[in-house]
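Quick one: structure tokens for this chain, please?
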Amino acid sequence: MIFKNINSRLSSVLLKKIKVLPVFILCSFIILGFTKSAFYINFEDDGVLEIEGWVLSDKDDPLNKANVTVFRDGNIIHVEQTNSRGKFNFNLATGSVYTAVFSKDGYVSKKISFNGELPNDFDGFNYFYFEFIVELFPYVKGVDYTILETPFVEIAYIEDSEEFFFEEQKSRPNLARISDLKNYTYRYLEYRDDYESLIKAADKLLEQDDYFAAMETYNNALALLPKEKHPQKQIDYIFTKLAEDEDIAELSTDEKMPPEDDLTSLEIAESDMPEEIIAAHEDETLPGTDRKEKETDLVVQVKEKPVHETKPENNIFAYFDFASYYVDEKSAKMADNAIQYLKQNPDMNMVLYGHSDTRGNPVFNFFLSQLRAQAAYNYCISKGISPDRLLTLADGQNQPLIENAIRESEHRTNRRVEFEFVDNYKFKEMRNNTPKLSFRHINDLETNNSFSPGVEIMVQFIAAKNPIGTSYFHKIFQGYPGTNIIYYYDTDMLHRYLVGSYQTLDEAESASEKMNNLGYDTYVVAFNNGKRISLEEVR
């Protein structure tokens, strides 16, 4: 959503677009720019969380007419179906907890929790926006999907970013389990025919009291689908039966088991074993072997990680999940290569550029790209890089690597942080010009902006260590929709947000008073050719 030229269009847009509104809505603004549009809704007492997203298959295909059902306190409050692009959109009042269910025939259903509670001392504004993707994979009868009966992720207000995001730390274990469940589903589909044939043969052998052959066949079935309960249950039954059978109990141990030469017939070839079974097998202590001795042997065999003395092959620092700014393990490996090179070249510095994909709200995407650059910056510092050698900039959705991305894998390529190595001279020059490099009109992100020549006066309403989200702009867009909101990343490493520009102090002070009436704590600032000057110099 791009906010542009609102004053000249607002009245006509309202007449065309706002025709039928629920009684409880106080006001609604339809704000147009290029081909994007958005709407804001004020509930009587609560704020609003606008939710936008897409339902895709795990093959990245949009799922048309997937069902989206939202519950509050067990009651249905919203029902819709996705469009041909798999898209959905709904609004939630803050202050309550919701559960959204995403379903389609032939696919597993997934649930997501929305915790709309805000901190008791929250003094921000009443509009929030969040977007995400729900991936559904095929439902297969016989697979245990119990984990999906409860919400697998929670979206809540995160105080660090002052916006609504996934609870990363809480959600990641469940996401990993669901990834395993999806893999198991496809493995089940692939091996099911062979598995069922083995089970049928084993059950027949068991009926014939051919215990050892039945046990071997059940083990072979487990090698295909280790999570299946039936073969393990039957193996346990065989052991119980063997222990209870008086005739077999009187046999010697050698008579109970096949000859030593035939023991391999009961074992599963390691190449046929699933990775998780191999890992568990390798972790066992060998009979007659002291565990400490084994650990010592393993330590001797560990090789040191290679030192990256050459530049990384590409300039990608990290890729990100949808609506996320978490540097995951895969991306951390790429990032570590760049950091290693930076450590070995103290005369070089790093510029980090944050990017988003091209879907959704451009203002939110710009904010998200800032958070991604900041996450990369924090990751570098955690690895011992001095902040003085780092600079973060953000481009939002304006610089996609794949311009006409369709599939989710292509969108993921666009959700990235890139890095650039620069020498000390160029780095100093870039840091001194940071305000000009990062200058943005929040209500016109696609236009390249810069400070006006000569003296320019603005009204600053916040300077923050971390980027601020869309909620902070909402009242300005509502109260003064024609006002330009300016953002830049200053040389003091603060994110500054202003409105302007004005040619006289009287104009700026009048705008500052209006902003104060909206609840902002503002003050007037001035620039001369983009360089900060005092108000005394202006006078």
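Residues 42-166 form a domain with the Protocatechuate 3,4-Dioxygenase, subunit A fold (CATH 2.60.130.10).
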